[in-house]
Design a protein that fits this description.
The chain contains 19 helices and 16 strands. The chain is of the alpha/beta class. It is found in: Cell membrane.
């Protein structure tokens, strides 16, 4: 699992390791599942200030175009939690991009993309030693200033005293190894015990006096260094942990311990602008969300938890479901309402497609009206054709009821209008198919089947089929009518308005009845496939029904899986696609013949073609 990281992109990335927490609570191990990550506790305010100082320095450098022209510094900062293993995990993630970037080892590190040329931290010795050993393999510099000091003065006989911890032992061992490489002899190397037992301290003092060494390095913390008071005539080399320690700088001890000592200390200076930078840190600042350490710091300082989203920032109370907290978490503001509106790009597009379809249907009706006495119009049952065009116009227009803010009336209108208009449309196609099929049967000798499928019977079939859908929709509106509903996901800033079907069974019956009529129509058209091509519309009706069925079969899973307003978009798209399929397959070929191939619009041509064409 990746560690929390505070990062900023740049041409050169500087690493940062800081002990922002002083303790790690290790999880209990069950050995049956993946162990959870360790929890860091006890926030360290001083280290947090160091981290922010690094960020401030980098931002100041980037703002000054004269320091690094055309180069932007970035950073990656991790929390080592004052533990070696956490520091090691952090440094492995820090340099992971360098090792895993796929760059050959022969390539220069300066040109390696994603490489980290410098690492700042860690402040703790134990973590620093682990990091130092790891980073040494990547050739990052580690400067031992104390060794350079010995070399500068030409000392050849030195003693080494270390504290009994990773800081003291590690530093003393490295120092001893490095000065030996310079030809300097180490007279002795002793360790001050943690309990600072008097017998051990006396033994160390005896070795110091008997060795004759007058230059002694004390690599320890201030409490260990204080145990050596009373020794004089010695040139002490102080590590930075105690060189400026307050308890060793009093007048009483100054002459006993620090007189003539040399060491290194972290430079103290006033950094202009740093204080204002630190005071501007706030959870509501623009970069707060990208900083995983700012909110824990803020909660630790004020001993309270920040309000989560959807809560008021002062009283920490939940906003109402239709409200959301503002950026400052100080007030509840209304959530943005989302629905398929006439001002949306999607709504405008669907509305335009719907109006174009209605216009095309009216144009087809006008063409048929102007050529109503021509053979191709009369041969295809002009009365049913005009009724079909009227129902198709209603199908196109009913899609407009799905656009706009849902209300009680619009929700009831959109579903009932959709169901009834489509049944009327399919009933007309079913009537045309039955008439064509029966008309061919009537040409057989002795057949009187057409008396059962005259104009009155055709109207009765269409009326009956449509009346069934009207009854279904009426029962639906009475028992469980569609109503507007608000979807308010807890973690969303949107209130989604849509129409709830009220009764899923009724909605399924409406769609199922339309599907039943479409399937029956497709079956009859398939049975009429062997009839003469110019005497019936079986082929065109079959194509139109195949498109219609394919659209609505695909609609069901798409509608169920579409979130929010996109379920409405899916339904409108299905209505328009199936309407265009019916209009194009049934009427486009006839308009083509009427307008562009008038020589085929004659009784002679219709009756002359052989009846051998099959679907």
């Amino acid at each position: 699992m990746s560690l929390p990281v505070l990062e900023k992109k740049g041409d050169i990335i500087l690493g940062g390791l800081f002990s922002l927490h002083d303790m790690v609570v290790e999880p209990s191990l069950s050995f049956t599942s993946t162990p959870p990550p360790a929890q860091c506790t006890r926030f360290n305010f001083r280290t947090f200030r160091w981290m922010q100082t690094m960020i401030f320095a980098i931002e100041e450098i980037n703002r000054n175009g004269k320091l690094l022209p055309n180069i932007t510094l970035g950073y990656k900062i991790y929390d080592s939690c004052s533990t070696p293993h956490q520091a090691l995990k952090a440094v492995m993630e820090l340099v992971g991009s360098e090792k895993g970037s796929g760059v050959e080892e022969t390539q220069s590190k300066d040109t390696c993309p994603g490489s980290v040329p410098a690492v700042i931290g860690d402040g703790g010795s134990t973590q620093s030693l682990v990091v130092a050993r790891f980073l040494g393999a990547f050739h990052l510099p580690q400067v031992d200033a104390l060794v350079q000091l010995v070399k500068h003065f030409g000392w050849t006989w030195v003693g080494v005293i270390a504290g009994d911890d990773a800081y003291g032992r590690g530093g003393a061992n490295i120092f001893a190894d490095e000065v030996r490489k310079l030809g300097t002899c180490v007279a002795f190397q002793e360790v001050i015990p943690r309990n600072r037992a008097q017998t051990t301290l006396s033994s160390i003092v005896s070795k110091i006096r008997s060795s004759g060494a007058r230059v002694i390095l004390v690599f320890a913390v201030e409490q260990d260094a204080a145990a050596l008071e009373g020794l004089t005539e010695i040139q002490w080399l102080a590590s930075e942990a105690w060189s400026t320690a307050a308890i060793l700088s009093t007048p009483k001890r100054h002459h006993q311990i620090l007189q003539g000592s040399m060491g290194f200390a972290i430079r103290r200076a006033h950094i202009p602008g740093l204080k204002d930078f630190l005071l501007r840190l706030h959870p509501s600042s623009p970069n707060a969300l990208a900083d995983p350490f700012l909110i824990p710091f803020w909660e630790e300082v004020f001993q309270c938890s920040l309000c989560v989203q959807a809560e008021d920032a002062i009283e920490c109370v939940h906003c109402l479901p239709e409200f959301w907290s503002n950026a400052e978490r100080t007030a509840c503001i209304p959530k943005q309402v989302e629905f398929l509106s006439f001002s949306d790009t999607m709504g405008i597009t669907l509305m335009a497609i719907s109006l174009i379809g209605s216009f095309c249907t009216c144009v087809v009706a006008l063409i048929f009206s102007c050529h109503r006495i021509t053979p191709i119009v009369r041969a295809n049952n002009s009365e049913l054709s005009f009724l079909l065009l009227f129902s198709l116009t209603l199908c196109f227009l009913c899609s407009l009821t799905f656009i706009g803010r849902p209300s009680e009336w619009s929700c009831m209108l959109r579903h009932t209008a959709f169901g009834i208009t489509f049944v009327l449309c399919i009933s007309c196609i079913l009537g045309k198919t039955m008439v064509v099929l029966m008309a061919f049967k009537a040409t057989l000798p002795g057949s009187n089947v057409m008396k059962w499928f005259g104009p009155a019977q055709q109207k009765a079939i269409i009326t009956f089929c449509t009346l069934v859908q009207v009854i279904i929709c009426t029962v639906w509106l009475v028992v469980a009518p569609p109503t507007p509903r608000q979807l308010m996901p807890r973690e969303s800033v949107l209130v989604i308005l849509l129409c709830d079907e009220g009764s899923a069974i009724a909605f399924a019956l409406v769609l199922g009845y339309i599907g039943l009529l479409a399937g029956l129509c497709l079956l009859l058209a398939f049975l009429a496939r062997k009839l003469p091509d110019n005497f019936n519309e079986a082929r065109l009706i079959t194509f139109s029904m195949l498109i219609f069925c394919a659209v609505w079969i695909a609609f069901v899973p798409a509608y169920i899986s579409s979130p929010g307003k996109y379920s409405t978009v899916t339904e409108v798209f299905a209505i328009l696609a199936s309407s265009y399929g019916l209009l194009g397959c049934i009427f486009a070929p006839k308009c083509y013949i009427i307008l562009l191939r008038p020589e085929k619009n004659t009784w002679k041509h219709i009756m002359s073609k052989a009846a051998t064409d099959k679907f």
